[in-house]
Amino acid sequence: MTTEAPRPAPKDPFDLPDVSGLTVGVLGGTGDQGRGLAYRLAKAGQRVIIGSRSAERAGAAAAELGSGVEGAANEDCARRSDIVIVAVPWDGHAKTLEGLRDALEGKLVVDCVNPLGFDKKGAYALKPEEGSAAEQAAALLPGSRVTAAFHHLSAVLLQDPGVAEIATDVMVLGESRADTDLVQALANRIPGMRGVFAGRLRNAHQVESLVANLISVNRRYKAHAGVRLTDI
């Protein structure tokens, strides 16, 4: 008679790796969203490098944010970072990434760009040819490990030193569970945030598009709404 070996217990989905020793680069770190993320991650103890087309501008922004943040030109930021967050404006997304393909080779890239248009009716979602900003990034950076996250965060709250916690969930998408685990763990470094796996990159469009709805919510209720996922 043969007996089967016991199956290992399933991994706890919230048992995530330690990312405290990794350096995080923020491309577009002089913009509101990038500055806010840089500020929060540095405040949580992460080493952060702000990237900009101008090293001087990046250095000035880093000095304003204080300890734990330094500034550099985009290419230097990309090469020196373990995880690189892309927080550039949508209209400069493709050009920026094309110019940094070599510097981002082998890096874990986190795209948080939301392709949006605006008219007299308000914000509306755009759909890139590749399907989403994240999928565009993956197409432009074949040597990088591209994920998507940090789309639904209020830049106002992120930059406000009077706000101790950012009470929101961060939906994380990607092709490798090991990579999305790292990004979830990074989100968890910020008090109040929780990183949640939300599927593969092919599902990034609807996550990016939801920002148009949040803009409408925030305008109507004069708020800084985020997203919470229930029952997990």
UniProtKB/TrEMBL annotation:
Record-level Gene Ontology MF annotations: coenzyme F420 binding; cupric reductase (NADH) activity; ferric-chelate reductase (NADPH) activity; NADP binding; oxidoreductase activity, acting on NAD(P)H
Domain spans labelled Pyrroline-5-carboxylate reductase catalytic N-terminal: 23-115
CC annotations in GO: plasma membrane
Keyword line: Oxidoreductase
Highest taxon above the source species: Bacteria
One GO term of the biological process aspect: copper ion import
Pfam families given in the database record: F420_oxidored (PF03807)
Signal peptide: none
NCBIfam families membership: npdG
The name this protein goes by in its record: Pyrroline-5-carboxylate reductase catalytic N-terminal domain-containing protein
Provenance organism: Streptomyces smaragdinus
UniProt lineage: Bacteria, Bacillati, Actinomycetota, Actinomycetes, Kitasatosporales
